[in-house]
C-alpha cells in the first residue's frame, strides 16, 4: 500500500463566494433514465429487443419523461429497438426518447436514420475533452477537440433540417468533464452553442458528466457552479449531470450538483452502469421523497421494479440497497427492534403529522413493502423484536415483564441452531411453551356459583373444579372475591399451595363478538422463581384459569 505515493490529490476549485452550500433541494429535477443505454452496455449479456421493451415499459410506468433508449449506431440490436419503438408507435406523446452518438460523421448519420418518424427526440452528442484523453487517446490539442465537437454539431444541425415532422432537442456532453480544465469545458460548450444557437424558448442541454468520479462530491458541485457562473446565455441552456460511481459517492455528488444549479439528472435504476455504475435515480428520488419533496417518479411498487430489473438485466439488487433491498426494512439488533416496535405503536396511536419511526426513514408501505419483514429474529435479537413479532403477526401483546422470559427461550433456539427464526417458528415455540403444556396439571371442568350482597357490596364466588394431577382426577373447591381468586384457593386446597399470585393481564385477540380472549398470569414458587402462563378461550374466565395452569406446568419443565 506504499504505492499511494503514485497518486496525486485532485486540486481544489478556486472559487470565491460559492453559493451551493447554503442551498436546499426543493423540487425534483428533470429525470432522464439511461438504463437502456449506459446500463445496458455495462451488462455481461446485454438486453435483447424483448427485454429492452419490457424495461422501457417499466420506465414509463415509473413516470420517466426522458429515456435514453440506446446507441442506434453501435449495433443492430440497438438500431432495431429504436425502429420497433417508432414503427409500432410505442412512444407516448409526452415522452422524449434520447439517442447517443459520438461526434463522428458516419455514427451521426446512422443515428438520424434511426429517428425517421419519431415525433420528439433528444440527440445526445459527445466527445471527450479531458486533459488525459487529449494526451493519451486522441493525441490532439484543445483546438483539435473543439473542431471535433463543432463538426458533429454542424452535421446534426444539417441533418435536423432534413428530418421532417420530428422535433429535435440537442444535447452536448464534454465527456470526462471532471478531468477537463473548467475554462476549456466552457470554451468547447460555447463553441457548440454558437452553432446550435439555443434560445430561452428552444433550449439545448449541456450535460456535464463525471465520466470518472475523480474527487469528493463537493468538488463536483464546485465544478458545476463554476461552469454555470462562467457560461454565456445560461438561460438558454438546461444543465444536466451524469455522475458515475468510481468513488462510491455518485448519489451525493448528484445531490450537491443540484444545489450548485443543475436542472437535470441522467442516471439508472439501482446505479447499474459502466465500471462501478451510475448515479442511482431510485435512491436520489426516494431521498427527496423522505424529505417531503414530490420526486415526480412513482416507486410505490418497488418490488415490481426490482423484479423486472433483475429479470431483464440478469443483475441482482443488493439486499442492503437503500429503499429496495430485501433487508433494508429489517432489524436484527435487539435495541433497533425495540425502538421500531415502540415507534410504530406510537405512530399508530398518536397519529402525528409526520412519519417518525426510529431506524425507518420512510414508511415501507409507501413503496409497497410490508411491515411483516421489518423484524427478523436471530441470536442478536432482543425482547423488543420478539414482542413485535408476537403482536403484529399474531395479536399477542406480551406483558413487559414477560418479554425477557420468552425472548430468552427464543434466543436459546437461535444460539443452538445458528439460524434466523421465522415468525411461524416463533409462534410454534410460544404455543409449545405456554399453550400446549398439559402436565402435570390439567383443568378438566369447572362450575362457578356467585353470592352477591349488593347492600354490603360483597361478592363471594365459589368454584368447583375437576383437575387431573399426575394422571389422577381430583375434585376441589375454592372461595374468593372473584373466579381467579377462588380458583387459586381451590388449587391450594388440592395440594398446590406453594405458589403466589404476582400479576395478571388480559386482552382480546381480535375484534367482534366471536373474538377470543388471552390472559397472562405470573406466579412465583417457593424458591422465589417466577413463571408466566398463557391461556386462550372465548370465555375470559376459562382463559384466565388456563393461564394459571400454564404457569404451574412451566415450573415443571
Folded structure, characterized:
The protein is of the alpha/beta class. It has helices at residues 35-41, 49-62, 76-87, 105-114, 131-136, 142-162, 182-196, 217-230, 250-259, 281-289, 302-313, 334-350, 383-394, 403-417, 423-435, 483-493, 540-554, and strands at residues 30-33, 66-70, 96-102, 120-128, 167-175, 204-210, 237-243, 264-267, 441-453, 458-469, 472-480, 500-508, 517-524, 530-537. It has three domains: 27-313, TIM Barrel (Alpha-Beta Barrel); 334-433, no CATH class; 441-554, 2-Layer Sandwich (Double Stranded RNA Binding Domain). The protein has 17 helices and 14 strands. A hairpin with a 5-residue loop joins strand 13 and strand 14 (530-537). The protein is elongated, with a radius of gyration of 35 Å.
Main β-sheet description: 8 strands, parallel
- In total, the number of strands is 14
Assess the beta-strand content as a share of residues: 15-25%
Q: How many domains, in number, for the residues?
A: 3
What is the CATH H-level superfamily of the largest domain?
A: Aldolase class I
Structural class: alpha/beta
According to CATH, the fold-level topology of the largest domain is TIM Barrel
CATH architecture of the largest domain: Alpha-Beta Barrel
| Order of the strands making up the biggest sheet | 1-8-7-6-5-4-3-2
Quick recap:
This protein has 557 residues and is of the alpha/beta class. It is built from 17 helices and 14 strands.
Amino acid at each position: 500500500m506504499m504505492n499511494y505515493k503514485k497518486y496525486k490529490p485532485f486540486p481544489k476549485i478556486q472559487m470565491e463566494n460559492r453559493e451551493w452550500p447554503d442551498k436546499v433541494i426543493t423540487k425534483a429535477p428533470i429525470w432522464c433514465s439511461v438504463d437502456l443505454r449506459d446500463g445496458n452496455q455495462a451488462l455481461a449479456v446485454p438486453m435483447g429487443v424483448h427485454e429492452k421493451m419490457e424495461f422501457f415499459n417499466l420506465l414509463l410506468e415509473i413516470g420517466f419523461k426522458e429515456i435514453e433508449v440506446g446507441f442506434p449506431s453501435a449495433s443492430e440490436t440497438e438500431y432495431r429497438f429504436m425502429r420497433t419503438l417508432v414503427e409500432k408507435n410505442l412512444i407516448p406523446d409526452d415522452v422524449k426518447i434520447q439517442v447517443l452518438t459520438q461526434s463522428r460523421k458516419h455514427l451521426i448519420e446512422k443515428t438520424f436514420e434511426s429517428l425517421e418518424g419519431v415525433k420528439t427526440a433528444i440527440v445526445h452528442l459527445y466527445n471527450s475533452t479531458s486533459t488525459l484523453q487529449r494526451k493519451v487517446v486522441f493525441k490532439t490539442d484543445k483546438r483539435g477537440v473543439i473542431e471535433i465537437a463543432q463538426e458533429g454539431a454542424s452535421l446534426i444541425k444539417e441533418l435536423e433540417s432534413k428530418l421532417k415532422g420530428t422535433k429535435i432537442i440537442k444535447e452536448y456532453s464534454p465527456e470526462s468533464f471532471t478531468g477537463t480544465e473548467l475554462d476549456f469545458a466552457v470554451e468547447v460548450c460555447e463553441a457548440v452553442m454558437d452553432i446550435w444557437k439555443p434560445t430561452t424558448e428552444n433550449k439545448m442541454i449541456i450535460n456535464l458528466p463525471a465520466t470518472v468520479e475523480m474527487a469528493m462530491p463537493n468538488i463536483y458541485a464546485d465544478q458545476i457552479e463554476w461552469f454555470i457562473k462562467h457560461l454565456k446565455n445560461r438561460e438558454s441552456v438546461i444543465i444536466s449531470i451524469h455522475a458515475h460511481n468510481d468513488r462510491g459517492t455518485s448519489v451525493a455528488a448528484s445531490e450537491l450538483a443540484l444545489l450548485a444549479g443543475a436542472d437535470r439528472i441522467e442516471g439508472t435504476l439501482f446505479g447499474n452502469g459502466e465500471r462501478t455504475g451510475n448515479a442511482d435515480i431510485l435512491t436520489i428520488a426516494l431521498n427527496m421523497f423522505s424529505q417531503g419533496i414530490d420526486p415526480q417518479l412513482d416507486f410505490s411498487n418497488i418490488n415490481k421494479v426490482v423484479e423486472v430489473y433483475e429479470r431483464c438485466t440478469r443483475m441482482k439488487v443488493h439486499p442492503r440497497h437503500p429503499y429496495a433491498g430485501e433487508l433494508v426494512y429489517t432489524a436484527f439488533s435487539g435495541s433497533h427492534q425495540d425502538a421500531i416496535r415502540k415507534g410504530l405503536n406510537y405512530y399508530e396511536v398518536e397519529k402525528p403529522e409526520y412519519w417518525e419511526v426510529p431506524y425507518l426513514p420512510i414508511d415501507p408501505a409507501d413503496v409497497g413493502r410490508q411491515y411483516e419483514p421489518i423484524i427478523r429474529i436471530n441470536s442478536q435479537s432482543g425482547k423488543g423484536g420478539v414482542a413485535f413479532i408476537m403482536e403484529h403477526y399474531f395479536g399477542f401483546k406480551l406483558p413487559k415483564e414477560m418479554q425477557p422470559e420468552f425472548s430468552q427461550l427464543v434466543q436459546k433456539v437461535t444460539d443452538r441452531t445458528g439460524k434466523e427464526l421465522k415468525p411461524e417458528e416463533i409462534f410454534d415455540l410460544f404455543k409449545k411453551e405456554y399453550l400446549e403444556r398439559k402436565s402435570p396439571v390439567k383443568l378438566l371442568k369447572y362450575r362457578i356459583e356467585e353470592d352477591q350482597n349488593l347492600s354490603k357490596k360483597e361478592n363471594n364466588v365459589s368454584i368447583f373444579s375437576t383437575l387431573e394431577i399426575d394422571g389422577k382426577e381430583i375434585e376441589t373447591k375454592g372461595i374468593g372475591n372473584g373466579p381467579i381468586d377462588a380458583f387459586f384457593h381451590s388449587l391450594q386446597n388440592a395440594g398446590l399451595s406453594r405458589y403466589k399470585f404476582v400479576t395478571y393481564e388480559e386482552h382480546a385477540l381480535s375484534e367482534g363478538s366471536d373474538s377470543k380472549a388471552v390472559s397472562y398470569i405470573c406466579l412465583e414458587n417457593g424458591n422465589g422463581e417466577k413463571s408466566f402462563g398463557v391461556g386462550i378461550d372465548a370465555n375470559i374466565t376459562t382463559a384466565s384459569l388456563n393461564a394459571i395452569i400454564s404457569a404451574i406446568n412451566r415450573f415443571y419443565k
